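Subgroup meeting minutes
Present: P.N., E.W., G.H.
Scribe: E.W.

1. P.N. recapped why we're keeping a running log of single-chain structure predictions: easier to compare across weeks, and new members can see raw inputs and outputs side by side.
2. G.H. added today's entry (471 aa).
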Amino acid sequence: MNLPAEEHEKVKDHFLGNLDETCLVANADGSVRVIASQAKKKTEKNTDDSRTSIASLRIGLASGNQGPFAFLAKGTRMDRPSIAKLLKEQCPAGSQVLMSPSAYMTDDAYLALVPEFAKGICSMEVTKDHPDWWMTITCDGFGSHIIDKANELFAKHKIQIVKEEGDTSQVNQSHDQNAAKKDKCHMRANLELIRRKLGKKVDQWSLVAFAINAQLKASNAAWQGSHARVNTQLSTRVGFKEWIKQLDDRGALSLGEKFFTKRTSLFDAMPACWVNMSVEHRHEVLAVIKDVYDTAALCDAKVDWTKGTVVGLARYAKLEDIHKLRACCLVAQEDPSIIAHDDGTVTVHEDGTASTSTNVEAQFEANVPEEPAFDDGNKSKNVRDFFHRAPQKLKDTCLKDKSDKSVQKKLFTHMTNHTAQTMWDADRNQPLEPSSYLDARMSDDQKTLLCPSCNNVLMGYILCDVKGREQ
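Output recorded in log:
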């Protein structure tokens, strides 16, 4: 549509840009931790607890030119002549401050700023010399950016809006590459320099002034590099296959592949609260939820999650995760294998329930390493065995040959260490003694050795790591 094509080819980078907004906050967190010398009696940091924020909407072209700035401030009336003067004298044409109830972008706010914003885009360098040529502006999928009325307003100025594919901003949105990082860097520097001089909390008008200064510092090279990095600089643009190869070489695609490679069933999509449950607990959870649905169906009423139901499910998961169990129940109806997911030995019964050929303890110990998990005070290779009083592997080895004292000693050592571990939080004045059935006499030193403190065990681990196992 931009003819003559030869002339457009020379300046095509001036007719493709990216539009995005960002939130600028006075203090990301009011609480500040200061690390300083212990010898210094008093350490202070001049700061405040201001959580004032504004929204900034801006555009940058593949040529490196910056378009107008639009700021959203909280309130109903813009009554700061100094800010209006800054916008007029220092900012690109079409820059403005728009008042909104929350200082966040809404459909109404976007529609109000688009007319002036579009005029500013059309008045940019080179662009203004070709009023009959079309410009393409890319943006993310934020709802306010893609409403039809706004697109119609842009179209009146020969600007077409192209939405990026969802969840692809990291490889498709130029503003998120170099430009946004530079803005944040300059903004932090401005706040650190000015906050002490202000001597008070930073208000939204100060933020607008800081943002104008920070965004004006963005160089043409920053925007050019941002567009080139996401393949939207027309003068350096490569084909789709070559672009995908470049992304793959940068590792941008490998993370996604690794994420999905290890996921082979619906069980992999289950929340942690479900995955960490035993098979028996999953059945009990499903029984509680099934009872709710059966009661509702019997009374021909709406499903009602009563306090008793929530309390019952709270035995198996945190309160904030209760709603996830309902989704797990629905998935279990479609794929019962998520109930007793193990190495594939899942049996689905006629009633829709599922079970495995092994019991829960065998399931729990299915992946225990061949050698004992906890031997003579050495660190466990498997954390689950460390917290298990009688690991199945050790028990099976003892049962095979009860006359092998070395094997019995390994199990005994592990069980005594496990018992001592459970006593760490107990009253240290109360000794840990063997069963009275053994009628064993113990000295005070023996009682201390039999019940080491948490500090004793940790020191033992450190000594073992430093010195190594004795041969």
